[in-house]
Amino acid sequence: MILSAMMRQGLLGLFVLCSALGAQAAEAPLLAYGARIAGDDARTRVVIDFDKKPVFFVHYVANPTRVIVDLPETSFGLKPEDLAARGLFTEIRYGAMGAGSARVVLTAKKPVEITVADVKADEEGRGFRLVLDAERVTEERFSGLLEEQQWTGTVTATKTGRVVEPPAAGEFMIAVDAGHGGIDTGAIGTETKMEEKSVTLAFAGELVETLNRETGVKAFLTREKDEFLSLPERVQIARQHGANLFISVHADTLKQRDIRGATVYTISDKASDHLAANLAVRENLSDEIAGITLKSEPAEVADILIDLTRRETQAFSVNLARSVVSSFEGQINLINNPHRHAGFRVLQAPDVPSILLELGFLSNKQDEKLLVDPVWRKKIAGLLAGAIRNYRSGSVANGG
Ligand SMILES: [Zn+2]
Fold it and tell me: Which residues neighbour ligand 1 (ion) by CB within 5 Å?
């Protein structure tokens, strides 16, 4: 109980420190050069070594139970085994959140409380270490912690505030969304250990370049670097730019390693099949991985006009998906039934036709080789540009 009272004071202290987060971000990023974790199901200690004194902020998120440590911009020079999940924690992730901030997310099996959150100077003069002690607590205590804490909101609500130039009249705007990023690495290649977030960013860049060579087209990236964007932020960025199309790019893994080829997804309440349903569940976890609390869906969904817009948008999304599949046919490997659908949250813009493109699977050796091949990427980008050209001529003919 004494520890709890101390923790409350500790948290208050952290709020004060937090206002300095922005100031520290302007300097060279922090370097996390080492980490250790030890403990059991009752208490677990996490230690992270930094080159400079880290300013940090700890808070909690429920469902699943997570401890979030917000940091200024940080380069993580850690080996995966340094922070392998153990003790009270089942999963530990860390990475960039964008806008000069980084985050460590510790997912816990049971309700936990951080009883010590302390920065100490390294005895050998090698910077500072952040020590976090977690203890198993009751559900009631954890609920109490959730209620007591205050959010600063500095980390998650930043990217969509960016200033956006309105599109020039008549320009056809295409949002190209590189899946995952920052703390959310996405899938990992079986052979090369390539991270999906890098594969998608490399391809998205190539696609934007290719599309921008088309007359009257202006393509742009939702993220230009290795940063985390929440799924609603991706949608919002596309809408702020007045996007006419939204293409989210992915390269996931499957348990069935022999499955390969590209897939084009559109949104629907009911998934077309198991594979699509599972994939949507995994993609929709992105925000949870980054420790973002989900807000409830907007009430406007019930509006009949929005419903009509949605239906129209859905028809355009399906046309685009068909056009992409037919441009890929005979040119690149496609999965069986290459147009599938499921409830992807990133495809939720009511007024922007949207598709999610799985370029191939990082779990398949042959696909993995292609996914990192710049020549193959150029070919796919060219085929997509052709598909969009066909889609546009079709949608004009349909009066869209
Ligand atoms: Zn993905």
Answer: 179, 186, 250, 252
